[in-house]
Task: structure prediction
Amino acid sequence: MSHVRMELNLREYLHEKAQESRNNERQGYLMLVAGVTFFVGGVLTNLKIPGDVWWFLIIPYHADFNAGAILGLSLIMSGLCLMILGIIVGSNYHREREWLMEELKKTYMNELRKAKANELKIQTESKKKKSFS
Result:
């Protein structure tokens, strides 16, 4: 009986870990959305700065830094960092959840196989009892 309870605990544990991983994956994707929001805000802030804005790919730089330029640059940099970290965290937890679901499926299949074996055992014992009677 304790062996069956241990497997149930393993199944419950894997299920809980899969739910936790799903939640962490969502948080990673929310980090990505926050990063995109910061990035767009930084670009819009730099576009509203009067004067010439010099761009190096997606990063603006100016000869004279003012408060708006520093705010825009910091929003762009923090947005890029959040986007990269959000993608990394989300994909990491997605892979972890896939692995946990595969292990949960294996555990479930083992339980079904053992239940069928017990059912066959009970049926053969009942047939033996009937044949002896």
About this structure: The chain has one domain: 2-127. The radius of gyration is 29 Å.
